[in-house]
Amino acid sequence: MSEDRSAAIQCILRQIEAEHHVYILYACESGSRAWGFASASSDYDVRFIYARHPLAYLRLDVPRDVIEIPIKDDLDINGWDVFKALRLLRKSNPPLLEWLTSPIAYRGNETPGISALRSLARQGFSQNVLCYHYWHMARGNWQQYLRGKSEVILKKYLYVLRPLATLLYLEQCQSLPPVDFIETISAIQIESEVCEHILALIKQKRAGDEMGMSVADPVLHGFIAIEMARIEEQITPDYDAQRRTMLSQGIEIKAFVKENGTIEVYEHLQGRESFHRYWLIESRRYEVSGTDPLPLLASYLRTVIGEIEHGYEGSFAEVLLASFRGEKASV
User: Fold this and answer.
1) In terms of domains, do 7 and 120 share one?
2) Are 96 and 88 within 8 A, CB to CB?
3) For FRET with 250, which of 46, 102, 119, 324 sits at 20 to 30 Å CA-CA?
4) Over the stretch 224-263, which tens digit does the pLDDT of each residue have?
5) Considering the entire predicted model, what is its pTM?
6) CB 167 within 8 A of CB 134
7) 192 Cβ contact list (under 8 Å, min separation 6)
8) Range of the domain at 103
9) Cα distance between residue 229 and residue 260, in whole Å
10) Cβ neighbour number for residue 291 with a 10 Å cutoff
């Protein structure tokens, strides 16, 4: 990293503190620079965690918990309030875990508070949450850019291989994966030929060489296809069987779109007085919450949102897709 860009980032962080009346507890690099395959022209994806004055949290109208700075030149900078970060840490939010373990820190990396959060992340992360996150990331890029194609955009391999390698690390090492891609590759067991092709691709990306359309790499294509099929058998449940099970239990589902774009889903099981409530955050991510969340519903949320064009027909898909259109629906 050049001294000019580092100084510019520090300057912007100080400006954010002054303009928004916050204190930045931690700031780090996210994206390709943290993953270890950035080129000289890659953007700086700076992420930070901040705190406000204690009195700000005692107001009836709690301040917004996100600060987003308009992208300027190669600087993409935004951050989360510490309370938002803590709530997401409790849920093993994968982007937050990557922030906390980023190899590039701009502020607060060794402070006791951030060190404690990092320790909690390593000790208490949910393997299931991380597996689903990286699985959907790998599968989405694989199906959209590489699968079945004789010519591909070379850099798209990296956006399949990084989450795939993370999945293999979770499987083989049973610990929080490194953010650096090369460190992850070095820690897992894969064929040497595959490793050589991955490292050559990283070297090419770092050098800033052209990574546009090219003939598909048979070694990488074969490796990805085999591993994706193997992992899919382990991680993808039988959705049709789950749907039959839920319908046989007489479950009523209602879904609504709130003004902030959140999809709110209610589930009621016959014979019970209470409703369970679930939130779906953003269009292609999910969060499941509530008392005793129903794993079957969570699976359907992930399926329909993760791959709308191939979503299952039937009651769950109808309800959720109706909610995307702003309608109210129930079954």
Assistant:
1) yes
2) yes
3) 324
4) 999 999 988 887 554 444 444 544 555 555 555 455 545 5
5) 0.72
6) yes
7) none
8) 3-124
9) 37
10) 7
